[in-house]
Design a protein that fits this description.
With 305 residues, the chain is of the alpha+beta class. The chain is built from seven helices and 16 strands.
Length: 305
């Protein structure tokens, strides 16, 4: 994933650009032990940060949800990322801001720990950039489920919650699939291990309401693109029956942009979909939107989180 010349690149760490190999943290960092780091996945296109305000606002909110404040403003984070892209000579890049509690304590309570912030960026091609935007992926139903919001900080992009996705995706890969579909605790469709899922049925885009998992910024950008064609949007509870009866299915997220789902396997029974016309149209529209500045959506409110 990382460039061969990563040793010659820089990472922004606590206010300074430092060589890639020197961007280190202490082994006793609280978030390493207790899972309290928060992060974002972002992209730059043509040297411009895509949906940057929305992502950085969510990063700040994610930290507040898990009990600390990031000691940087949205403007500071944006300027740091722009400097990072410039010094690393990156035009199209994946960007990973990260904040975590330091090593002052490894006790469960660590209110006095110093909050550190790092931003990394590297070349990570998207399926579209590799010519695979319409290559469908195959999902397996995960045995793991997303927790209820009263049992975990599900509105935060918190590192601790991603272990569920890691376990589910490892199982899917071992079984020959590309990713896993997770349900919520009541058995409704939630998301994949790292992307939101969207169903298409009779000119309507339907997505599970993000009440126990992270709401996708990319998804709302795609919704805005879809509205331009007059497509209806629904966010509601989605059953497995709804999923299997959909006309088209695709996933959205920063890492993959838009990617079709062509197969879903559950209890040795598979449902198949074609890559349909609405998915194709939105893939095209999305690629066009990447070169527009400002993009369609570049703010996030607390109500969206």
């Amino acid at each position: 994933m990382f460039q061969d010349d990563a040793s010659e690149k820089f990472i922004w760490l606590d206010g300074a650009l430092v060589p890639w190999s020197e961007a280190q943290l202490h082994v006793l960092s609280h978030s390493l032990h207790m899972g309290g780091a928060v992060f974002e996945g972002m992209r730059a296109y043509d040297g411009q940060i895509f949906l940057g305000n929305a992502h950085f606002e969510r990063l700040l909110q994610s930290a507040e949800i898990v009990g600390y404040s990031i000691p940087r403003t949205l403007i500071e984070l944006t300027k740091a990322t722009e400097a990072l892209l410039w010094v690393n000579e990156l035009q199209d890049a994946y960007i990973r801001p990260l904040a975590w509690r330091g090593s002052e304590s490894v006790s469960v309570a660590s209110q006095d720990a110093i909050i550190h912030v790092a931003i990394s960026a590297w070349e990570w091609p998207t399926p579209a950039s590799l010519g695979n935007s319409e290559k469908g992926i195959r999902l397996q139903l995960a045995t793991w489920r997303r927790p209820r919001p009263e049992t975990a900080p599900t509105a935060s992009k918190c590192s601790g919650l991603y272990m569920i996705g890691t376990l589910a995706r490892h199982a899917a890969l071992d079984a020959g699939f590309d990713d896993a579909l997770l349900l919520d605790s009541d058995g409704y469709v939630a998301e994949t291990t790292a992307t939101n899922i969207i169903l298409v049925k009779q000119q309507t885009l339907i997505s599970p309401i993000a009440d126990c998992f992270l709401d996708s910024i990319t998804k709302h950008h795609v919704f805005d693109l879809a509205k331009r064609h007059g497509f209806a949007i629904q966010e509601r509870k989605v059953s497995l029956e709804d999923l299997c009866s959909a006309d088209e299915v695709f996933v959205v997220g920063t890492s993959i942009e838009i990617q079709p789902i062509t197969e879903f396997c559950m209890n040795s029974t598979s449902t198949h979909w074609r890559v349909g016309p609405i998915t194709r149209q939105l893939i095209t529209d999305f690629q066009i939107s990447l070169r527009q500045h400002p993009p369609v959506l570049d703010t996030l409110t607390l109500a969206d989180a």
